[in-house]
Amino acid sequence: xxxxxxxxxxxxxxxxxxxxxxxxxxxxxxxxxxxxxxxxxxxxxxxxxxxxxxxxxxxxxxxxxxxxxxxxxxxxxxxxxxxxxxxxxxxxxxxxxxxxxxxxxxxxxxxxxxxxxxxxxxxxxxxxxxxxxxxxxxxxxxxxxxxxxxxxxxxxxxxxxxxxxxxxxxxxxxxxxxxxxxxxxxxxxxxxxxxxxxxxxxxxxxxxxxxxxxxxxxxxxxxxxxxxxxxxxxxxxxxxxxxxxxxxxxxxxxxxxxxxxxxxxxxxxxxxxxxxxxxxxxxxxxxxxxxxxxxxxxxxxxxxxxxxxxxxxxxxxxxxxxxxxxxxxxxxxxxxxxxxxxxxxxxxxxxxxxxxxxxxxxxxxxxxxxxxxxx
Length: 375
Known about the structure:
By secondary structure, the chain is α/β, with parallel strands linked by helices. Helix content is 40%, strand content 16%. The strands form 2 sheets. The protein has a 7-stranded parallel β-sheet, with helices on both faces.
């Protein structure tokens, strides 16, 4: 007998130019649909532009977007919706009569506290309380209510029947904070779409930064522009990512910076650059852009944070850099003394061995088998 599933995510999976969280959520949805069958999976999302959204296949709830409403909702222990909207969410879940509630993001962890007969799984994309605390430290005390609400939701999320994390760091941190480790680790993954015929060995002296405009990315790339770029030998930085066009006028005051901004198709930019830079200073979970760059076999210069959760030690083509001089020396040496290959074979091989979707399908399916074999 087939099982009915409710898959709820806070990521806007309808956004074709979505950020890393959106891409990760879409992969998780594919795993669920492959196991249970698309017709048995009811999808629910929270969108800020609630009134403009038209999609019959997906149930849509309003996501708060004003800072005032987000502050109020956080004070009530909610992260993405007002507390009085919860009854509608619960009604939807119960109407579906599911065998499993799959919460993609612990931001919705408070839903676990409600009385239910179905099994529950929460996928921690990161430890939300830690992510919010980083925002408090880096962006101001305005985010304290968000931190409190994140901690509340994280704590309830750990009471699900099963918990999934991306990496060992998050699982260990979950145990430190709430006394529970993940039941399974499922790292960032992608279906391989690399096409060697799209590559070239005639690259310009350009390096790519790819990521959406949100504080960790913005702070990191601005640090790179100020501390690293002036010391590079005639190398241009190209910035691609959702909403970064808003920074175009400001960033392009530096002569060797070009801002492309939002792009629906990222492939031309990966194929058009021999190397990518990931100077991420802080964050949580795993960085989706790292797996993407590995899939395309790009030469990677990245911080510990950007490489967190990835098994990339001794992989030729990936250089760990944390200080400005480490980036400067590694990037200059690469463009001045190394051969710019059409793709880095070792980087591609590691992606195919560990982060290609097909490597993880059986692991996830076995997880669901165990879930429903437990009484």
